[in-house]
Amino acid sequence: MESEIFSVGEVTRYIKYLFDNDEILTGISIRGEISNFKCHNSGHFYFSLKDEEAQIHCVMFKSRNMNLDFFPQNGLKVIATGYITVYEKNGEYQLYVEKLEKDGIGELYLQFQKLKEKLQEEGLFDDSRKKNLPFLPKNIGIVTSINGAALRDLLTVIKRRFPNVNITIAPVSVQGEQAKDEISEGIELLNIYGNVDVIIVGRGGGSIEELWAFNEEKVARAIAGSKIPVISAVGHQTDFTIADFVADMRAPTPSAAGEMVIPEKDKLRSNLEIMKKRLFKRLEAIISTKRQEVEYLKRHYTGKKFNIILNTKRQDLDEVLKNLINCMENMIDERKTAFNYLVEKLNALNPLAVLSRGYSICQDEKGKIINSIEDVSIDQSVKVMLWDGFLKCNVNSREKRVIE
């Protein structure tokens, strides 16, 4: 006897029927830690509840979440109450949350808060230490995964806004055990060798575990220690990391960082043209005003009187020029006097000037000055410096001078 064959839809609807008629699943409370949290544009919440053994997908519609007294975040431990059924389109079961309560803080979230408080006490979040972003950077540094969507988004936005800007990429891992070391080294290398004006550090969205490298103290201190301004662009708008608080600027997404880091070239050109037109109009207005003044003078000071005024102004100009030349000559004389004084002082200290008065300096073969007869031995070669040259001599005897 052949078994009956069902369609996918029929099987899915049957499984959904079992879920919907199970007494436990139609009104259940589950304790777990929030992960992969996303707030949709519609206002609905989508997330997972997990523990050490498993995870379950959850949805909480806007009508149910609008009265919550807290905003869910990755890492929060909660108790979610609702019903479990199958979403037929995907063939997946999920928890439809009708009530959500805090149940303490997850381990990662606890680490996050502890490090945040520590760095905040040290002043690493203070606005006073944050650097301003350059208005028009010539070279932009990016620290992220070479294969990530974040890099593609950044390059697309930056090149669209300012096509000929230079970009230096420090490829790193953005999750995993080695990520914190690679991200820190990438920031340091761009500071030393990158010749960049601003640095963007970040990655695309993910769970709190996937974003955790940007909550590491080593990464935070690398950002804080950067001499170059740093933009943190980690995850989505609702994702917050330690890197966001330490950085000089936080971008809600990598694409937003691209818009934040450089202005649009076309808009700059347009603004320059507007300013140029305003400047020319202003100059034309000034010239027109001056012409009117000249015409007024011509009308009211005609003939000889006008020439008298003009000649007076010319004489005033000559007087100003004469005073300016005298001032410059006096200044030059003062500088010459000071210079000659310094030259005389240098000549007084010049050893050759002393030698010219009949003195000499005795040196050994290595050029070391001999200060005492104890510094030489009989038959030793010495060199005697005079004002116009050297004498090479041999020591025949040593006589000690008696000082009374």
Would you mind describing this structure in some detail?
The chain is an alpha/beta fold. It folds into four domains: 8-105, OB fold (Dihydrolipoamide Acetyltransferase, E2P) (Beta Barrel), CATH 2.40.50; 111-263, Rossmann fold, CATH 3.40.50.261; 267-332; 355-394, no CATH class. It has helices at residues 8-20, 62-65, 107-121, 149-161, 179-192, 217-224, 242-246, 254-261, 265-300, 303-349, 351-355, and strands at 28-39, 45-50, 55-60, 76-87, 92-105, 139-144, 166-171, 198-203, 230-234, 249-250, 361-363, 381-386, 389-394. The strands form three sheets. The protein has a five-stranded mixed beta barrel with strand order 1-2-3-5-4. It has a five-stranded parallel β-sheet with strand order 7-6-8-9-10. The longest helix is centred in the C-terminal third of the chain and has 47 residues, at 303-349. Its EC number is 3.1.11.6. Belongs to the XseA family. InterPro entries: Exonuc_VII_L, Exonuc_VII_lsu_C, OB-fold_nuc-bd_dom.
The CATH topology annotation of the largest domain reads as: Rossmann fold
Fraction in beta strands: 15-25%
Q: What's the CATH superfamily of the largest domain, by name? A: Succinyl-CoA synthetase domains
Give the low-confidence spans: none
Q: What summary fits the major beta sheet?
A: 5 strands, mixed, barrel
The name of the CATH architecture of the largest domain is 3-Layer(aba) Sandwich
